[in-house]
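for the recovery benchmark. tokens below, seq after
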């Protein structure tokens, strides 16, 4: 077996680059974590060596290129998600564009002339993300629409005189509105009946309409062209969600990324007909961002996989393969992962990813860790996870299921855990345990469960609903009680979360039944709990409650806190600490060492 501690150190020290964005002069920006947290790096247009452009302890949230070669980026403080906006000139230091540490500034888009930005801010009221426009040079900003609830500003109209406002009151409902900057009434661009998503709008330069991703009347997101107020004209409708869409600078071609069982497939389409132009070969993995070069000759994208951290790649519509712009150093051979399906209690097959350690199987079979994604409207993807690779190197197999309620398998599948059906997804974890325990290569007495955020709630629900099954549990910032969660989570999240989980008043009885804290006396197994103390989504009180009850009952529990982290562990030093704690915990409770 590989030395897990040494492997973890090596994998944590391996840098990743994500979220590419071209500037108008051809230089490429991206987020790069070589210094320990995601910072802005620049790859020069002439192909010269990359260089860091920011050096902060806290991670940068995004970067967007400007026509003059500069960029806009966002950064919060210690993971509190109250992002501030900054202007990075082509040369020299960044300067702040916003300076309100109490407000969240949501990134929108750069205006067609490159002189203004659109963004959202909840400065007026913490629950409402209003629409703002700012002159980059002067920093002069003005409110263009005050709204109720969370919103985004994904695009400008080509004439620069209006922006698109996107609403998302529920996970699978979003509507687009046109907001003129002259104060005229806003116009609904996507009138429709029933739930449907309208996402990623990209205007045609003549102003006649825009390309977008939508699932109106479908189970999956597809590519369509939409004339404002009319029905979508479908262009590309595969049996899987189209998750990314970017037109080429001359608007003759569309670059898209399609979700195929969690793996991304890059495709180039004819913008007028949707016909496939090419599908460049690339390693199997996950794409999170597409960016066309200003001359339209190539496309940059990031790509991460189970065995590789995210790197930057270049594709050309007329070439069969891709060129790597940034790739991490060569790594040792890592465990391979398979796509699997296991039966649920109601007879349906549930998807997931399964990996076994390298080397000889123990006589009793491998112990297993079941890793549960958050969301819940998310999908476990074949992504880079140093912690899971280290766990495999220890001699512990890993199953990553996509239980009912996960995205990526259609709207109907994602709705299977809604509200009163919430515990059906927890039963899926019991089904995963049953399937694993029946295998000859698994030791059914040594199966643990781990998750983060909503996945942390799933862990707590699993060890309270089915306490006899689990050898141990690892909960990263999970919800212990829905009542206290709704009382303390960020005000801007309450309406959207209530639509998913249940109304904290009208559905109070249901939410109390779904609160693991109320059944914590059933927990038998040792627990590890980790929490960022600036977390605005799942505040520390949730972890503190469950830890307090476990300690009061003398159930073995370890509790790790991080003063400079929010909803996730973004700094390399903190990841090193928490992953070391997880591997030590699993070594004791799944390997008995």
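predicted aa per position
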């Amino acid at each position: 077996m590989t030395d897990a501690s040494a492997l973890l150190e090596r994998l944590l020290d391996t840098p990743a680059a994500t979220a590419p964005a071209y500037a108008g002069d051809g230089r490429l920006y991206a987020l790069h974590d070589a210094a320990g947290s995601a910072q802005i790096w620049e790859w020069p247009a002439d192909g010269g060596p990359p260089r860091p452009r920011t050096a902060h302890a806290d991670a940068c949230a995004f970067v967007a290129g400007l026509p003059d070669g500069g960029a806009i980026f966002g950064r919060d403080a210690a993971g509190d998600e109250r992002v501030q906006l900054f202007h990075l000139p082509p040369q020299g230091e960044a300067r702040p564009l916003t300076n309100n540490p109490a407000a969240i500034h949501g990134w929108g888009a750069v205006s067609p002339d490159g002189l203004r930005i659109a963004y959202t801010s909840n400065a007026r009221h913490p629950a409402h993300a209003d629409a703002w426009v700012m002159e980059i040079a002067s920093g002069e900003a003005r409110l263009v629409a005050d709204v109720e609830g969370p919103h985004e500003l994904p695009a400008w109209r080509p004439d620069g005189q209006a922006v698109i406002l996107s609403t998302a009151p529920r996970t699978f409902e979003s509507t687009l509105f046109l907001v003129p900057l002259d104060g005229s009434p806003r116009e609904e661009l996507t009138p429709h009946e029933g739930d449907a998503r309208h996402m990623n709008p990209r205007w045609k330069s003549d102003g006649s309409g825009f390309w977008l991703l939508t699932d109106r009347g479908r189970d999956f997101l597809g590519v369509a062209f939409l004339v404002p107020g009319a029905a979508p004209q479908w262009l590309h409708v595969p049996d899987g969600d189209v998750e990314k869409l970017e037109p080429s600078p001359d608007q003759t071609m569309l670059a898209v990324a399609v979700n195929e069982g969690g793996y991304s497939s890059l495709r180039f389409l004819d913008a007028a007909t949707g016909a496939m132009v090419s599908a460049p070969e690339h390693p199997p993995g996950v794409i999170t961002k597409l960016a066309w070069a200003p001359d339209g000759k190539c496309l940059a994208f990031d790509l991460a996989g189970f065995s590789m951290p995210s790197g930057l790649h270049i594709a050309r519509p007329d070439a069969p393969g891709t060129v790597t712009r940034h790739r991490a150093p060569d790594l040792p051979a890592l465990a391979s992962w398979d796509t699997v399906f296991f039966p649920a209690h109601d007879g349906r097959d549930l998807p997931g990813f399964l990996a076994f350690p390298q080397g000889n199987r123990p006589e009793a079979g491998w112990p297993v860790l079941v890793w549960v994604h958050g969301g819940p409207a998310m999908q476990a993807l074949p992504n880079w996870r140093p912690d899971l690779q280290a766990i495999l190197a220890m001699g512990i197999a890993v199953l990553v299921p996509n239980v009912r309620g996960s995205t990526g398998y259609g709207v109907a599948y994602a709705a299977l855990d809604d509200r009163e059906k919430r515990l059906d997804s927890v039963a899926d974890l019991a089904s995963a345990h049953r399937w694993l325990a029946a295998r000859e290569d698994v030791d059914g007495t040594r199966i643990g469960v781990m998750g983060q955020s909503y996945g942390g709630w799933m862990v707590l629900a699993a060890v309270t609903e089915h306490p006899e099954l689990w050898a141990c549990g690892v909960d990263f910032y999970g919800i212990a009680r829905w009542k206290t969660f709704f009382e303390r989570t960020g005000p801007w999240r309450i309406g959207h979360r209530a639509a998913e989980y249940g109304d904290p008043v009208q559905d109070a009885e249901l939410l109390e039944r779904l609160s693991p804290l109320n059944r914590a006396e059933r927990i038998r197994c040792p627990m590890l709990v980790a929490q960022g103390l600036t977390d605005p989504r799942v505040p520390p009180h949730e972890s503190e409650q469950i830890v307090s009850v476990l300690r009061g009952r003398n159930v073995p529990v370890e509790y790790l806190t991080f003063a400079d982290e929010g909803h996730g562990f973004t700094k390399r030093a903190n990841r090193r600490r928490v992953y070391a704690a997880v591997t030590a915990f699993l070594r004791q409770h799944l390997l008995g060492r």
